[in-house]
Amino acid sequence: MKVLAVELYLRLFDSYSLKDKRSVVKSILAKMHQRYNVSIAEVAEQDMLNQAVIGLAVVNSSSLLCRQIVDKIIEEIEANYPVEIYQINEIE
User: Fold this and answer.
1) How many angstroms separate the first and last alpha carbons of the chain?
2) In CATH, what number is assigned to the domain containing residue 58?
3) SUPFAM superfamilies from the entry (predicted)?
């Protein structure tokens, strides 16, 4: 069993209130959980208007498959949401 945990640091565009931010973040969390069956949550910077930190964990039989799932999630977030991922930290 392989586990890959990652923190994604996001910069949100067009976020003028916490309500705007939470709308985007909740959409990301719900869609990525539903589509990829990963554990995902906002873990820091909850009160910042244009920044968010999302933690996600993938469990699979292969570390290569874990890495591919995380890469797909990153690509999908950047392609479909008004955000920029400016830092990615792997958690040991």
Assistant:
1) 15
2) 3.30.70.1120
3) Hypothetical protein TT1725 (SSF103007)
In whole angstroms, what is the distance from residue 37 CA to residue 82 CA?
A: 23
Q: What is the pLDDT of residue 48?
A: 83
Strands of 2-12's sheet in order across: 39-44, 51-60, 2-12, 83-91
63: domain range?
Answer: 2-91
Count of domains for the chain: 1
